[in-house]
Structures are given as structure tokens and as C-alpha cells.
Amino acid sequence: xxxxxxxxxxxxxxxxxxxxxxxxxxxxxxxxxxxxxxxxxxxxxxxxxxxxxxxxxxxxxxxxxxxxxxxxxxxxxxxxxxxxxxxxxxxxxxxxxxxxxxxxxxxxxxxxxxxxxxxxxxxxxxxxxxxxxxxxxxxxxxxxxxxxxxxxxxxxxxxxxxxxxxxxxxxxxxxxxxxxxxxxxxxxxxxxxxxxxxxxxxxxxxxxxxxxxxxxxxxxxxxxxxxxxxxxxxxxxxxxxxxxxxxxxxxxxxxxxxxxxxxxxxxxxxxxxxxxxxxxxxxxxxxxxxxxxxxxxxxxxxxxxxxxxxxxxxxxxxxxxxxxxxxxxxxxxx
Length: 334
Description:
Blueprint: E1 2-7, E2 16-21, E3 29-39, H1 41-47, E4 64-71, E5 83-86, E6 89-91, H2 97-100, E7 111-112, E8 124-128, E9 133-134, H3 141-144, H4 150-160, E10 168-172, H5 178-188, E11 191-196, H6 202-207, E12 212-215, H7 219-223, E13 229-234, H8 242-248, E14 249-257, H9 269-275, E15 278-281, H10 287-300, E16 306-310, H11 314-322, E17 329-333
Parallel strand pairs: 10-11, 10-13, 11-12, 13-14, 14-15, 16-17
Antiparallel strand pairs: 1-2, 3-4, 3-8, 3-17, 4-5, 5-9, 6-7
């Protein structure tokens, strides 16, 4: 089968039309005809080879919505014509202790949709059926792609760490991840505070579900919320004064990272000791957790705020993301 996509031939390079041929469909695989694909900051990081694992030619795209076009002979959970989504992971071994316990996202053999293979900036994409999730009818297909990466990234810790509706939760960074975190946690029942260096985002943050807004540029604002939070999620990928956020936690509170901060963390241990506080991080989620997230989003009418570009505008869209301009996710549409 011939696939038409957009690929870069070098780090940071322009995405150009690219054609490749797929081999025979595996017995546990499906082919998806791509309808739309969100653009995630991870696509940009991979394009620039920030993580030193990109192979070129590189076809980005891992927030995919499409229609199942063909299924392998062992596939039982999907059928042709079904609308589905695919996120960061396109496969795992299915036999290790992590896969068999339902933690497929922690599998050491986890296969990234855009790591060593071609992603969703194309007319078709292939994946293992276990990682392809049916899209609930109540969800809008065009805006749902970002749920399969950004959405599950912020939803997974809600499940993994048992965040309670009575908890007070802070979200650092009101961007592509943070605006979805506000919507999920507000619908979950939490008291939600948005931390942002952009004071002009206060009204939008509150429209997404934030009950409170803290301008994190101001040290006094952070001091004023000391001992306030059960859980703080950082969605940013830049270094901050993490000690201020540890101080903002209540005893037994947790500072949790879902943003890929590349700089080493400078964390004083003493505040952790005396408050029995924790620091943690998580990747995306398993197929089961992703399906749970989609169900929750459908029940509560949660969807990302998006800007739409056509696939032939891919470079314009990537440049807008590079300059930090989207409000709040970009989706490419065929």
C-alpha cells in the first residue's frame, strides 16, 4: 500500500510531500485512513531531534483520528468503517508484567507512533489494534485528536494517584496541556487553581474551569498560596522555582510532572521530609485509561480548544507552534 505524507529530511527541516510503501498488514494490526491529526509539542521536539532519537525522513503526527480501513486476521476489538483514535503509542509487547497488568504504557518495548516509524501527518497510518481506541459517538471527531496525547497525559495522573473530588489541585502552565487539565479536574469536582506567567490568560483559565488564578511571575502571589494544595501538576517544559511549589503543597501533597523539563531539578529535601511530600512524573496512559478518559470527556462534554489547518499548511502550523502562538491546540484536517 502506498502512503502519502509529509516528512522532514533533517533536524528542524521543512516538511515536504513524501511517499512510502507499507508491507503486509500484521495479524494484530490495523490500517487507519487519517481524517485529522493534532500537532503536539512532542512533534516539534522530535522534528528538531531534541531527545536524540529521531530517524529521518521523519513523519510526525500522533494525535490521530480516522476510520479503520483494514484489520489483521486476529483483530477482534475493531472493525472496518469504525472511527478511532491513536496517540503516542502504536504498540507494546503484550506479554510483559506491565502489559498483562494493564500498564501497557510502561512496557519497555513500547513502540512510539513517531519513533522509528512514520506517523499521522499522512493519509494513512498503521498500529497494533490494542492501542487503537474507538471514539465515542458523543465526541466531536475534529477536536478529539489532542485527547489522545495531551488529554491522556493530564488525565492519567488523576487515575494513577487517586485524586479525589475534594482535593485542591493546581495546574502550572495554561497551554496545550494545561487548558485540558483545568477542564478535566474541574469536571472531576476538584477546587482548581491555574498558575500562569501570562496574566492575560486569567479569564480564559476560568472559562476552562479554574476557580482561582495565580500570576506565577510574582513571588508574593506564590507565597500567598503556601500550604494550599493536595496535588500540583506541572505541564511546562521549562525550569521554574520548584521550591515555591513545594511550599504551596499541604502535608502529604504531591508535585507531579507531565511536562518534559530537560534541565535537572533542583529540589531541597527538607521540605519533603517535614511535610511527607512527594515528587513524581508520568507518561501517557494505557489503552484502558485512554478509553476511560474518552468516556469521561463524552459524559462531561470536554474537548480541547483548537485551531484548524489543512494538511498542506503543515509548515505554517508547525511554525505557529514553534513560536508559542496557538490557543490552544492545532489540528490538521484532510
